[in-house]
Specification:
By secondary structure, the chain is α/β, with parallel strands linked by helices. It has 9 helices and 5 strands, in the order E-H-E-H-E-H-E-H-E-H-H-H-H-H.
Length: 193
């Protein structure tokens, strides 16, 4: 296979993107190289980036953390006198049309799978808590209802809306099923439950 590299900035999803890319590259039989920025200022990182690019085996493919970082890699390649896409092929992330179409050469970019990521997060939450996202949110809302019933004199309608329910009918039935009494009965019993 070929050589692949990554150029990542510090960011909240950076470890996931890096590890996913690294695993895919290694599974495909490629060699993996990584550049880690020492500062968030791309200009300050440019000399180190240029030197790192010069150490890579050619031809080489690079995945940047996002399209803005990919643009800085293209600039660094030009300064290092490396041809893009001849010697180095670059892929960005986020598919920022303004950046991709106004870069020379035109930047190839991918759009993250946010829907798939949401499903993965929901599955992860389900594994940790032993219940799904919907059930977790509903429990949190119902806990808020029970607390507000004890701590305030607000109307049941206001409490239901302020707890995230769209109408009082569902939380009213759910509350009775969960606590074995109506919201009014709950409020009347105070904290002795």
């Amino acid at each position: 296979m070929g050589e692949v590299s990554s150029k990542f900035a510090n960011g909240s999803c950076q470890p996931y993107r890096r590890e996913t890319f690294r695993a895919a590259a290694l599974a495909a039989g490629a060699t993996f190289h990584e550049f880690t920025e020492t500062t968030d200022n791309q200009t300050d990182n440019m000399p180190e980036l240029i030197e790192w690019l010069r150490t890579l085996p050619l031809p080489c493919g690079i995945m940047a953390f996002n399209d803005i970082r990919a643009l800085s890699v293209i600039d660094a390649c030009h300064l290092a006198r490396l041809t893009v896409p001849g010697q180095i092929q670059i892929v960005g992330v986020d598919n920022e049309v303004e950046i991709c179409e106004n870069t020379y050469p035109t930047l190839t970019s991918v759009l993250p799978d946010f829907e798939g990521g949401g499903y993965m997060a929901a599955q992860w939450l389900d594994e940790i808590l032993g219940r799904g996202v919907g059930e977790t949110l509903c429990r949190e809302r119902l806990d808020r209802v029970s607390r507000l019933l004890r701590e305030t004199d607000r109307t049941i309608l206001d409490i239901c809306f302020d707890s995230g329910f769209r109408s009082p009918s569902y939380p009213t039935a759910l509350f009775k099923k969960t606590y074995g009494m109506t919201m009014s009965e709950w409020r009347g019993h105070g904290s002795a439950r």
